Amino acid sequence: MAKISILSGKGGTGKTFASTNLVRVLPNATYIDCDIEEPNGRIFLNPIIEDISDVYTKVPLIDDNRCERCGICSKVCRFGALINLGREILILDHLCHSCEACYEMCPMNAITMANRKIGEISTGVSRGIDFIEGRLNPGEPSGVPIIKQINILIKSIELSIVDSPPGTSCSVVNTIEDSDLCILVTEPTPFGLHDLKLAVELVKEMDIPMAVIINKSGSDNQIIYNYCMKNDIKVLMEIPYDKKIAELYSRGTLIAEADSTYEKMFVDLAEKILELIENEAAGNSEW
Amino acid sequence: MRVAISSTGTDIDSIVDERFGRARYFIIVDTETGEHEAIDNEAYQLSGGAGAKTAQMIIEKGSEAVISSNIGPNAMDVMEKAGIRVYRAYNMSVKEAVDLFNKGLLQEILQPTSKGHHGGI
Asked: Is A191 within 8 Å of chain B by CB?
């Protein structure tokens, strides 16, 4: 069992590009889209969806017969999800973070926690590749429950390639949890470097081995190399800033399928990654 | 009538705060007597739900109307359910806003003026 997470800090650096092409050339890998706010791996993999299951979060439900409108629930809610109007308690579902403080603190035991659907998990197959995708409904404050559920599925998957959301917040923390390796995709720009640093700090904090891919590689690569060298992080691959990539990508085509040079680049990447994971498993973390 | 005005400062000559949930202060004015008090809006720096929390405070203060420049969907929802009307004032002092309100010259806000802002978690 191995879990490889692809993240970046900055959005638009090529997480989905790298993950979908990587999964294509890896034998027996499962593609897992945890970029729940905008899961778009399916555009490139075109999976046949076999099952869709709903994901729920807990929200308070008030028994009007028991509630005495004391407003304690409203006071303890940090998120403004319960408002005491005097004659009734108004619940703003979409502000609720399911912390259950209201449920715990209600002196009348008038609150129960009910299910509310926040998104779904689709599973399917894309030309021999198993496919899993989490999708959060628009306007929802947190997709973490979806990611946690996907993490349970990952536990029984041989080799998972996990496409992470951008940034370094809760959804990313939960996505990369228990990874054997994190691949950080960056671009040689000041923005790319800035957000790479944030991602590196997070991954270090979580004590996960990591390596970097430079996408849209060009004359400014040195800023990434300097940083990686200083921090002992291996650069696994440079993907050139190539119009051909952009053209194929905009048509939803996997470049590892359409172009043999790029296919070879991703095959090399896959080999390096598998090697890193084996070394790590053998307790040799000198890379 | 007790009216709550979002304010950038604590006195009646302060400029109306353009934001509702993130307003630094509210000045509650009794339009009959002219008496007023300034309230520190504790919700202004919440990561999320500031509009709803502010609305709760306005209800607790017994206000019957609100004056601000903008209001988001959560606060508007609460105001509607609480039967509190919202009026728009922009780029003027709290005192001027109350004068215009008393003359019936402020426009009522019936729809949220912004889509709301997402707080972090």
From this structure: no
